[in-house]
Amino acid sequence: MNPLDFERWIAQEADLRRRTFRQAVHLVLRAIANEPALAPLMVMKGGILLAIRYHSARFTRDIDFSTRRHIEDVDLTRFVAELDDSIRRVAADNEYGLALAVQSHALKPRARTTPTFPTLQVMVGYADRASRPEMRRLQAGEAPRTVQLDYSFNEWASEVEQHVLDGGTLTMYAYHDLIAEKLRAVLQQPIRQRSRFQDVYDLCLLFEHGEPDAADRQAILDKLRAASSERQVPMDPRALRDPVLEALSRRGYAEVAALVPGTPPDFESSFATVRDFYEQLPWNRS
Q1: 48, 64 in Cβ contact below 8 A?
Q2: Cα angle vertex 209, ends 203, 212, to 5°?
Q3: CB count, 10 Å around CB of 262?
Q4: Which portions of the chain are predicted below pLDDT 50?
Q5: Cβ–Cβ < 8 Å for 215, 269
Q6: How many CA atoms lie within 13 A of 106 on its CB side?
Q7: Distance separating alpha carbons of residues 283 and 209, to the nearest angstrom
C-alpha cells in the first residue's frame, strides 16, 4: 500500500497559488485525521483522493467525503463546530504559515426539505499569517481563498482503507469501491440528467493504476450492484451503449484539458476503455 506522500504532491505543483491550496488541503486532512470524533466517520473519496493516492493530474478544488449516517442522526451545528475547532488547532502552528477556519456551511439540495442523499457543503478559508488584510478577511468569514468540503450522507461504501497521516488516521474509499462508485455515477447520468465527464477520465486512470484481475472484476461488479441498488440505478451489461448516456459523458469532456497538464486522452478512446471494462465484468458468473 502506497503511503500518502503530501510532500511530493505539494512539491509537484509549480503554480504558487495552487501549491498553497494543496498545503491548505494537507492541513484540513491532518485536522480530520487527528480528530477521533471525525476521522472514522468521514470517508474520503473523489478527485483529491485520486490526486494524492493514485497520482491523478486532474485539478479539483473540492474534498469529497461520504458517511453511512443519515442526516437526521447528525447534529450539524455540533459537527461543524468540531470540524472548525480541529482545523483551528492544526492551523495554530504549521509548517506552511497558514491560518484556516470554517467560513460557511450549507446543506444541499435546498429545494427539498428531506432529501434522501443530502450533502453538507463546508467552506474552509485559508490565509497567509503574515498578511494582515488576509487575516482580517479570514476572521470576518470572508476569506477569498477556500477549500470546499462536500460531505455526503447516506452514502454506500462497502470497504475502506485507513492510512496514517501526521499522527492520525485518514479513512478513504478502497480501490474496488472507487471504481464501483464511479461506474455507478456514469450509469446514473440519464436518470439525473447530469454530465459526469470527469469520471470517464478518472476510471481510465484507476484501470491503469491497478490493472484489475478476474478477482478484482468480480469484486467491482458485486460492489457496483450494491451501490446501484441503493440509488435504484438499473443494471444492464449493455448500458454504456445507450447514446444518451454516451452523449452526457461526452458533454464537457473537453474541459478535462483545462484541469490536467498536457493533452488528456481523447473522449472516444477513453469512453471505449470504460465501456469495454464494464461489458467485460463477469456478468454471467454472478
Answers
A1: yes
A2: 80
A3: 6
A4: 1
A5: no
A6: 7
A7: 23
**Helix (H) or strand (E) run with residue 66 in it:** strand 62-66
Model confidence over 80-102: pLDDT tens digits?
999 999 999 999 999 999 999 99
Q: Both ends of the chain: CA-CA distance in Å?
A: 28
Torsional class of 169: left (φ above 0), alpha (ψ -120 to 50), beta (otherwise): beta
Q: If DSSP codes are grouped into helix, strand and coil, which group holds residue 182?
A: helix
Beta strands in the chain (DSSP E): 43-45, 62-66, 98-108, 119-128, 146-152, 160-165, 168-173
Rounded to an integer, what distance in angstroms lies between the CA atom of residue 48 and that of residue 247?
A: 26
CB proximity list for 221: less than 8 A, separation 6 or greater: 281, 282, 283, 286
Give residue for cell 439540495: 109
pLDDT in tens, 178-196: 999 999 999 999 988 888 8
Q: What type of residue is 181? A: E
Residue 193, pLDDT score:
83
Residue whose C-alpha cell reads 475547532 in the numeric block: 85
The three three-digit cell numbers of residue 17, written as one number: 497559488
